[in-house]
Design a protein that fits this description.
mainly beta, Jelly Rolls, 2 domains, 10-stranded mixed beta sheet, 4-stranded antiparallel beta sheet, globular, disordered N terminus, binds 2-acetamido-2-deoxy-beta-D-glucopyranose, kinase
């Protein structure tokens, strides 16, 4: 693989929404061609249709031959909103480096890769775990698990140098690596121009300002299946919404979905809006913030 700078961090705030309003009443066309949705730890040849995303998740068995599969502990299965991807995991007791290989990738194509992790005390040890994720030979992110119920999401947008992708979990001596799911999504090459053949974009947060519901927006509302975390009830912010469909400009570089752009935040008693976030000190390199202004 080429010389990625995986440490460039991206901070994307879908905040202060979009461009102009068009009452088309047409929903963005969802097209999941080329999506690979893998539920790690799902037995053998199993698959299922995920009710909320409508996407079909398949077992990880044909992408890896190491590791063992486990269900999470029953007490953590009860959360009604828990996505089925988190009910089981694959873990890696042996070997420093265990890799998934996804084939039928187009060399030179742009992709979004997402890995998720929910511990759910699958091994009964109730232990904190820290391990590294690599994409090919390049460092991607350090995963730190301290809350068994917390879902940790790692995401990177990159240009594939060859016609397959390897995602590797690397044991750094701080516990047994495990994984809940892997999603590969083809991206239009024109989107996220900062991701190119010499550098990738690793996601820090992707926040949807002012939603009325506290749920993550993803496919089919976002045809690119990015995950947008709710960002609401911030002191001194007022949430504003529209029901109109919001159309992106034809040459928009990010194509934030209408569902995200329909909500926004404005300051209560001020003409400026302030926000801040913590930068993870191990993620060196350039930070990149994308905000979308609103005209609601
Ligand atoms: C879906 O996307 C693929 C690849 O981007 C494209 O070739 C195909 O025409 C699209 N299909 C529809 C129905 O838009
Ligand atoms: C996980 O749970 C399912 C159904 O709840 C069960 O069929 C399966 O055998 C369990 N798998 C393991 C590895 O315990
Ligand atoms: C999950 O972990 C993140 C990052 O460590 C933290 O900000 C968040 O509050 C945690 N969420 C829950 C529900 O514990
Ligand atoms: C990738 O983007 C960076 C920053 O915009 C630029 O410096 C670099 O030359 C680009 N690399 C390629 C291969 O286009
Ligand atoms: C909210 O605004 C008030 C007055 O405008 C200010 O004193 C307070 O610090 C603000 N709170 C936050 C959390 O920004
Ligand atoms: C906004 O200003 C009004 C009038 O000055 C005041 O009554 C109200 O408490 C302020 N709200 C906040 C959140 O600062």
């Amino acid at each position: 693989m080429k010389n990625y700078n995986m440490r460039e961090m991206a901070f994307w705030f879908a905040f202060l929404a979009s461009f102009f309003l068009i009452n088309t009443g047409v929903n963005g066309q969802a097209n999941n061609t080329g999506f690979v949705s893998i539920d790690c730890g799902l037995p053998g040849s199993s698959s299922y249709k995920d009710a909320s995303s409508t996407l079909t998740y398949i077992s990880d068995a044909k992408f890896i031959d190491t590791g063992t599969i486990h269900n999470i502990s029953v007490e953590y299965m009860m959360t009604p909103t828990l996505s089925p991807q988190y009910l089981n995991v694959r873990s890696f007791d042996t070997g420093v480096r265990n890799c998934y290989t996804i084939k039928s990738v187009v060399a030179g194509g742009k992709y979004l890769m997402r890995a998720t992790f929910m511990y759910g005390n699958y091994d009964g040890y109730s232990k904190d775990v820290i391990f590294d994720l690599h994409i090919g030979v390049n460092y991607w992110k350090t995963i730190k698990i301290s809350d068994p119920e917390n879902v940790t999401i790692a995401e990177v947008i990159f240009v594939a140098p060859v016609d397959y992708i390897q995602v590797c979990l690397v044991n750094t001596g701080l516990g047994t690596p495990f994984i809940s799911s892997l999603d590969l999504r083809p991206m239009k090459s024109s989107l996220y121009p900062a991701a190119n053949s010499s550098q990738a974009l690793a996601l820090s947060r992707r926040l949807n300002a002012g939603p009325t519901e506290g749920t993550i927006i993803r496919y089919p509302e976002d045809p690119h299946d990015r995950m947008w975390e709710p960002w609401s009830r911030v002191p001194n912010w007022t949430e504003i919404t529209t029901t109109s469909h919001i159309q992106n400009f034809p040459d928009d570089l990010f194509e934030a979905p209408s569902a995200v752009m329909q909500t926004a935040a404005t300051p209560v008693n001020s003409s400026e809006i302030q926000f801040y976030w913590d930068v993870n000190p191990i993620d060196k390199g350039l930070s990149y913030v994308h905000c979308q202004p609103a005209l609601l």
